[in-house]
Amino acid sequence: MTRLVNLVLSLMLAATLVGLTGAARAQGPLRIEITEGVIEPLPFAAPAFLPENAGAETLAVQITQVIADDLVGTGLFREIPAGAFISTVTSFSSPVQYSDWKAINAQALITGAVGVTSDGRVTVKFRLFDVFAENQLGDGLQFAGTTASWRRMAHKVADAIYQRITGEGGYFDSRVVFVSETGPKNARRKRLAIMDYDGANVQFLTDSSSIVLAPRFSPTGDRVLYTSYETGFPQIYLLDVETVGTRSLGQQTGTLTFAPRFSPDGSTVVYSVSQGGNSDIYRMPVQGGPETRLTSTPSIETAPSFSPDGGSIVFESDRSGTQQLYVMPASGGEATRISFGAGRYGTPVWSPRGDLIAFTKQNKGRFHIGVMRVDGSEERLLTASFLDEGPTWSPNGRVIMFTRESQGASGAPSLYSVDISGRNLRRVPTEGAASDPAWSPLLP
Amino acid sequence: MTHPIKALLLIASLGLAACTSPDRFGGGNSVDLNNSGGLNDPNAMGAGDATSPSYFSSTIGDRVLFAVDESTLSPEARQILTGQASWLNQNTAYAILVEGHADEQGTREYNLALSAKRASAVQQFLVAQGIAGNRIRTVPYGKERPLEICSEESCYAKNRRAVTVLQAGGTS
């Protein structure tokens, strides 16, 4: 098929999609509307990618597996086991026997090839087919990188597939910074760690000599703000992910600062300062400079989070008597309460899409992760447990990761994820106890 | 008690504390994991000596407890703190660090802020009782350093606390 014909077909396909909603249709175009809350995952076949040269065999299988795991992990897709395949893909460029894939109800077919060069470079190329429409969905794509970054290339392929089928940006080529925990509950040791979104490639960023809390990525994912007790008091630090160098944000000795977050342009940090027992919200340039006080009340104001346009800040305050959520202009000023349901609300985080605010809710002795519109309407609780807290958004604003702590003397925290329809609750694999996840943007 | 003996006891206590908690004296990097390794470690020597740090922690009482989501001082807490203030007014060799703590029922940031209020409530009470403000520092630990580890009110009640930790470096 020539590129022109392919393009025309793609446009026709796109045209037929207009006005269509709902979950994947068995005989319709390959499309998932995430917002509908998919109940029946879309079946796909991903025959092991073909090795293009000797030495690529193992990597080809591993890359195919990571792609399949990414897709299945969304809860939107179901992998058809290779044992059911009728066709064998023997060449990346040979025509697809659609009837063989229809027969096993594979709505999507992913084929690919992996090559390894002698200087340690890997190339991964793939094609995505809409089996029932009998055409290719989008052009074939190729990614290249070092052998060490093979997982990233697999994630990029999976992101492209996810994007083509859902129409939404992906989130697989991303990382999570979190607090790794060891030791008993009354003598917990904490250190910052970073890993791929799926738990692979864990690296520690700090040692466990000081308590560290709540790391937060910069909008470009290259820096992390966090709170550390390095001086004996909670204060904010900035860490460069590449060099693992850290510096204090320049607070005076004994000043108590915590709950930092970046502004969407990465230039400003918003955070809490506790003075004389009273916590208020401040902002200052990341590069240093004067602090600006944004709230001045005798109540607790903390957990600030910018809107993606940088114009507003959502935060929690107990000025009404209990913890509730408020929105104020990013320069301070009058705040509007947005949470009105039963219970207490904390740790609000603005979605990167700008449409929702995720939060922690406490009600009747249970903790929940929930979302609401930015005006506080349409509150929905996504989880319930002994202790869920600290939501963080996936780069596409469709999945939330959070801390879930188990009950009792041997209780320990783990990372979980759930999609914004409340489906697909999963534990994120970490070697030991883990808390306070923060999801990076998509990597460049 | 004569001054030389008192000095010896203080040195002994300092020695013990330094083993368990080097960060109490500023500039150290490690964090005391048990909240009890300061000068007022009850295991330190000299509990019978009314001027000893261990007397302060075991007889005067080095901690006060709080109701759920509260930072106001109960009558019991005020009584203990009155005792602390009186002891500190007589034993001026010590500065103090007031640690605020919360139980695990709460979000991390809120509990930090709440524990800061608790520590500050103690600080303000002691200042009102005549302790110089520059002898007192506060540190909020939120829910990071529970004393008791069960997930029941019996443990939570002990974890909602402010602990007055003696440090070297008073004003005498």
Hey, roughly how much beta strand do the residues of chain A contain?
A: 35-45%
CATH fold-level name of chain B:
60s Ribosomal Protein L30, Chain: A
- Number of H/I helices of chain B: 5
Q: How many independent structural domains of chain A? A: 2
Q: Extract low-pLDDT stretches of chain A.
A: 1-26
The CATH topology of the largest domain in chain A comes to Neuraminidase
- Which blocks of ≥5 consecutive residues of chain B have pLDDT under 50? 1-37
Question: Strand-and-helix sequence of chain B, N→C?
Answer: HHEHEHEHE
Largest interface: A-B, 48 and 40 residues
Q: Structural class of the secondary elements of chain A?
A: mainly beta
The best one-word shape of chain A is globular
Span between N and C termini of chain B? 17 Å
**Averaged pLDDT of chain A, please?**
91
Main β-sheet description of chain A = 7 strands, mixed
Strand count, sense and barrel status of the largest sheet of chain B are: 4 strands, mixed
Number of domains of chain B: 1
Strand order of the largest sheet of chain B: 1-4-2-3
Number of helices of chain A: 4
What share of the residues of chain B lie within helices?
40-55%
Structural class of chain B: alpha+beta
Cα-atom radius of gyration of chain B:
15 Å
